[in-house]
Amino acid sequence: MNGKKRLTIIISILAAALLISGYMYFSHNHETVDLPDGVKVIPLEFTNVFLIPLEKGYMLIDNGYAKEYDRFLQGLKHHGVDVMDIGYVFITHHHDDHVGFLNTLTVLNKSVRVIVHETGVPLLAAGENNTKNGGGIVNRAIYALFRLKMLITPTWDFSFPPYRVRKQDIVLKGEKASLPKEVGLSATVLHTPGHSSDSISLIYNDRYLFGGDMASSFLLWAGAKYLTLFNENVGQVYASWEKALSTNIEFILPAHGKPFKAERLKENLHKYSQDDLVAYF
Questions:
Q1: In what order do the strands lie in the sheet containing 113-117?
Q2: What tens digit of pLDDT does each residue of 76-114 get?
Q3: Residue 214 near residue 242, CB atoms below 8 Å
Q4: What is the CATH number of domain 3-279?
Q5: Best exposed site among 11, 30, 147, 149 by fewest CB in 10 Å?
């Protein structure tokens, strides 16, 4: 690598670090949303995973990249939770940063039950993010940041260890479903596609929505406008927002960024169209 190219990469990395610092300081509209009582969050590299208390043990909302399992275990230890205390894993969608260590977790805790939407079953088994539906990045600035991340982490290939749904797992069907009684949690699940075809969201205590990547407060300063950075179909995303808002939820607990008020979705509906997206696949 010649000196000029090395300098370009160093400058790009420093610029990215500055932008990320700016995001952390400026991008949340100075809102503070407290987590529901008993709910715990474990921040991974870019993804938040949540633990919802049940009558016995916890439900885990998503997980992270395969490489983040040890960091996840440290987060459990911080909260005084053992991996064997996890009775259910709720998968919002199949992407590599949400199911990366699912196999590791289910091998160690063989009694855990995975909750997934029917559309996610073949996608989990495929072991890679679905690219057949196309899609794109919200805008060119965020597209550039995506490319920079790929440059810094050349092994990032959107794959994950394939997961094949077992008999003990729970497969939800349709546009709206309730969790089985044995879960011990009265919650509504909505099919909220757009970011991915299998995306689902869980409404907790009638006020909070665990939406995975249905929406996000990450990189708001770069013009994300509460969209997750990549979307298959932005029109479907906005339709999913409207579906969620029709339930009168008050707060969104996203996988990326900090929790925020649901009214932010209403304020940012239809700010982008499919033609605005920068093609990625």
A1: 40-43, 48-53, 58-61, 86-90, 113-117, 170-172
A2: 999 999 999 999 999 999 999 999 999 999 999 999 999
A3: no
A4: 3.60.15.10
A5: 30
